[in-house]
Amino acid sequence: MIVLAITNQKGGVGKTTTAINLAAALAMRGKRTLLIDLDPQANSSMSYIDLATVEKSTYDLLMGERQLTDIVRETQVQNLDLAPARISLAKAENKLIGELEGHFKLRDALDACKKKYDFIVIDTPPTLGIITANALVASSHVLVPVQSSYFALEGTEDLLETVEKIRARPNPELKLLGAVITMHDKRTTLARDVQKAIVQLFGNKVFKTTITKSIRLEESPAHRESIFTFAPQSSGALEYYKLCEEVIERV
Q1: Cα-flanking dihedrals φ and ψ of residue 238, to 5°?
Q2: pLDDT value of residue 154
Q3: Which DSSP category does 37 fall into?
Q4: Which one, of 23, 126, 158, lies nearest residue 81 by Cα?
Q5: Minimal CA–CA distance to 19: which of 27, 184, 87?
Q6: pLDDT in the model for residue 202
């Protein structure tokens, strides 16, 4: 089972867009996939289900009040399940800090589903707190979306340092799968310069596939659909399918 954390402490970099569409692409490839929403904003959850119908969420999972099987929901995408979040997840940060085993809650919860899924994709909050640490401790790989903008690499060193700290002690098996450039506009000189800077930092860990700016990608969650059913002929659909192919090759 591959557990893939999609993480970047910066908001608005295409993290959730990558999580929901990569998970959908893996499911379309016949991979039994679980999308876990660990972001209190619950945008991944809203992309597939009505939050008003969610009674138990990843907050209850991290608090040890529910098993994973109690909160998982089927989605309209074949082979894709969802462990939804609610705004209450924001309370978990303070509650877990004081617990001795606070970083291991998600890893322990995933033990029950090792044989059920081929891939687990985790959408994380835009912070480097204990919820993100739970995702990294539970994961086998980490994927970093990096926005193609002037401030793209701000804070990236902190993220990579956090990954190294997790690898040093609680999860020595954690691997950096790669960085994917998102919201890219190849027509601008700035975007090309940023792309070079990202390649300088991550080297061959940068995915060949680049996700370009797309209105369709922004619109699809509002319809509770992935890009593959909302706009299957769009550039976003093609690019996320190609990214999925690269992910499968790398793992």
Answers
A1: -65, -45
A2: 82
A3: E
A4: 23
A5: 27
A6: 93
Distance of CA 55 to CAs 16, 52, 59, 211, Å?
22, 8, 11, 34
Task: Indicate the SS3 state at residue 172.
Answer: coil
The CA distances from residue 80 to 32, 48, 97, 116, in Å, are: 6, 10, 31, 12
Q: Which residues of the chain have pLDDT under 50?
A: none
d(CA 206, CA 217): 21
Query: How confident is the model over 40-67, as pLDDT tens digits?
Result: 999 999 999 999 999 999 999 999 999 9
| Buried b / exposed e along 83-96 (16+ C-beta atoms within 10 A) | bbbbeebeebbeeb
89 is written with which tokens? 């997840």
Residue 65 tokens, joined: 């009040």
Helix, strand, coil percent values for the chain (each to nearest 5): 50, 15, 35
Residue range 231-251, pLDDT digits in tens: 999 999 999 999 999 999 999
- The predicted model scores a pTM of 0.96
